Amino acid sequence: MSHIKAGMSGTERKPTGVLVMSYGTPESLEGVEAYYTHIRRGHPPTAEQLEDLTSRYKTIVGGVFPLRENTNRQVEALQRTLDGIAGEGAYVCYQGLKHADPYIEEGVAAMAADGIKEAVGIVLTPQYSAMSVGGYMKRAQDEAEKQGISFVAVKEYHLHPELIDALSKRVAEGLARFDEAAGSESLVLFSAHSLPAKVLEMKDPYQDQLLATSEAVAAAAGVKDWRFTWQSAGQTGQPWLGPDILETLEKLASEGVKRVLVTPVGFVSDHLEVLYDIDIEARKFAEERGVRLERIRMLNDDSQYMLAMADTVVKAANGRIGE
C-alpha cells in the first residue's frame, strides 16, 4: 500500500514496516467461491454452501465492496496516526490478509522489496488466540525470516485505555437509543467469534481476554447488567465455544428481558459477522421473541482505536510491549 519515499540516502534509518493483518474478504461477489475455497484449505464449497454464503453477502446493503474498502481505510488511518505520533516516514503500513489478496506473505514480501529490515505485525483483533492471531503471526514470522526482516509480533491490545474508552462511549450511545425508562432495563450483550472448543484444553487466553475486555468496557460505561455470548461458529462437525448468541437471546427472552444492546468486542469492523449475523439474523430472532435488539457502532477507523493500535505498534517497535 505504502512505499518508502524516493531519495532516501543509504545513511538514513529505514522506516519500520507495519504489517496490518486481518481475515480478509472477497473484492466482489464473483470472488466469493475462490475466497471460500481458500478458507476450506483448497476444498471448493458445495453448491449449497456457496449459495448460502453468496446470499448473505447479497443481503448486506451494498454487497461485498464496503467490507473490503473498510480494511483499506483502517490501514490508511493507522498510517496517518503513526505519522502524527512518530513523524512522517518513521513507519510504513502494509496489508496482509489471511484469505485474500494481498496475502500475509505478499505483505511481507512487499516490505522486503521496499528495503524494510525491521517490522511489527498487528492484527485487527484485540484479543489473542493461538488459533487466530497466533496463526497470522506464524505465517508473517516465517516469511519475514525468508526475507531477512526482523519481525516483532503484537499478540494483544485488548485492555488498551483508548480501546476501552472508545467502546464504552459506544455502549453509552447505544443505550441512549432506548427511551430513558427502558434504558435502565436494558441488557448489554458482549459477543465474539466462536472458536473450536478444543482451545480451552490448550489453555488459550482468548476467552479470558474477551471477558476482561467486556468487564472493563462495562465498568467504564457504568453498566451492571451484562452477559457474554459467542457467535458465528463454523459448521465443522466438532464442538465450538458456546452458548451461541441465538441460544442466549432465547434464554434472555424467557427471563423477560425486552431490550438488548449487542456489543461485539471481538470484532472491530463492519463485516459479514456483524452486518448479517447480528443485524439481520440475530435481530430477526430477537424480534420474534419480543426483544428489541440494537448494536453499537463498530470501531472501523475510529481515531481512538487507531491511537490504541499506533501506540501498541510503537511500543512493540521500541521493545516495550506490555506497558
Query: What structural category arises from helix and sheet content?
Result: alpha/beta
CATH class of the largest domain: Alpha Beta
Shape: globular
> In what order do the strands lie side by side in the largest sheet?
2-1-3-4
Q: Using the CA coordinates, give the radius of gyration.
A: 20 Å
Largest sheet: 4 strands, parallel
Return the average pLDDT rounded to an integer.
92
What is the helix tally? Answer: 12
Distance between the termini: 29 Å
What is the percent of helical residues? 40-55%
CATH architecture of the largest domain: 3-Layer(aba) Sandwich
What's the structural domain tally?
A: 2
* Beta-strand share of residues: 5-15%
CATH topology of the largest domain: Rossmann fold
Order of helices and strands: EHHHEHEHEHHEHEHEHHEH
**SS elements, strand count:** 8
Unreliable sequence segments: 1-11
Walk me through this protein's architecture.
The chain is α/β, with parallel strands linked by helices and 323 residues long. The protein has two domains: 16-158 and 302-317, 3-Layer(aba) Sandwich (Rossmann fold), CATH 3.40.50; 161-295, Rossmann fold (3-Layer(aba) Sandwich). It has helices spanning 32-39, 47-59, 65-86, 104-113, 133-147, 161-175, 180-183, 206-221, 245-254, 272-275, 277-287, 303-317, and strands spanning 16-22, 91-97, 118-123, 150-153, 187-193, 226-231, 259-263, 292-295. The strands form two sheets. The protein has a four-stranded parallel β-sheet, with helices on both faces. It is globular and about 65 Å long. The two termini are 29 Å apart. Involved in coproporphyrin-dependent heme b biosynthesis. Catalyzes the insertion of ferrous iron into coproporphyrin III to form Fe-coproporphyrin III.
